[in-house]
Amino acid sequence: MASLAEIRARLQAAENKQGGQSAGGGDKSIYPHWNMEEGQSCTIRFLPDGNNKNTFFWVERQMIRLPFAGIKGEMDSKQVMVQVPCVEMWEPNACPILAEVRTWFKDKSLEEMGRKYWKKRSYIMQGFVRENPIADDTTPDNPIRKFIIGPQLFATIKAVLMDPETEELPTDALRGLDFRITKTSKGGYADYSTSKWSRKESALTETEAAAIEAHNLFDLNTFLPKRPSEVELRVIKEMFEASVDGQPYDTERWGQYFRPAGVQAPGGGSNSDAETPAPAPAPVAKAAPAPVAETPAWEDEPAEASAPVAKPAAPTQKAEDILAMIRSRQQK
Question: Taking the model in full, what pTM does it have?
Answer without folding.
Answer: 0.73
